[in-house]
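Methods: example folding runs. The two proteins below were folded one after another, and each record is reproduced exactly as written to the output file, sequence line first and structure-token line second.
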Amino acid sequence: MPRFLTIGYGERIGYDNTPQALRDAAHEHDARLVRDGALTAVMLPPVCVTNTHDRGTEVTSGAYMRSDMPVAGFSLIEAASLDQAIAMVSKTPCAVADGVVEVWPLEEYA
């Protein structure tokens, strides 16, 4: 079955401004995704790693990509289609709490 990487963006203020019952339902939705086999996690501060032409590894703090909202978490899910993957993440915390979720179809190496 195809897999999809989903990346949730959101800020604490948007989460806090979302009604508690909706947040609870979104977290239960995430728990169901995990029970069904999704790998789901909250993101911690990242680092960027480069090693241009193998001349030495450099590490810098922070994300490479920038957005108006921080990356909040990700999931690796299996779905029969992109439409099904979209439906699966449409009720997650970032999607319902003033955030956004990107859905990236993966083409896996055999």
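Second run, written to the same file directly after the first:
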Amino acid sequence: MKNTKLKKNGATQTTTSFLGYIPRFFRLLLNLLRDSRVSATDKAILGATIAYLINPADIVPDWIPFLGMVDDLYLVALALLRLVLRTDEKILAQYWDGPEELVSLLKQMAQWAVAFLPPRVRQALLARVEQNEKV
């Protein structure tokens, strides 16, 4: 997760591939929201994320091609990354219906997502993820 620099063409291609997962991520978020094993704090974050996804008036309106979905994907990536750090992977895997392994996909998305963050925030987040991987 150390390489967060994305080439322009690679970033666009990566973003496009991640956008295809939004419906699956939405179902995952809804199922996690209903699961009693997910903490109340995480459920609040999931609920806010779902509300943002279904709200047509957000930071970048969804009617703007491509860019309108990038902010949604970014928020989903951050919410799910938090869940990876705080929730048993078996719970996440129970509700995941995608073709790829969820944690691996989320790590790829985290690399993509942190590339857009200010350097200090990016370093703090990556340090936390790397620390959690060692445990």
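Comment on the second run: The chain is about 70% helix and 0% strand.
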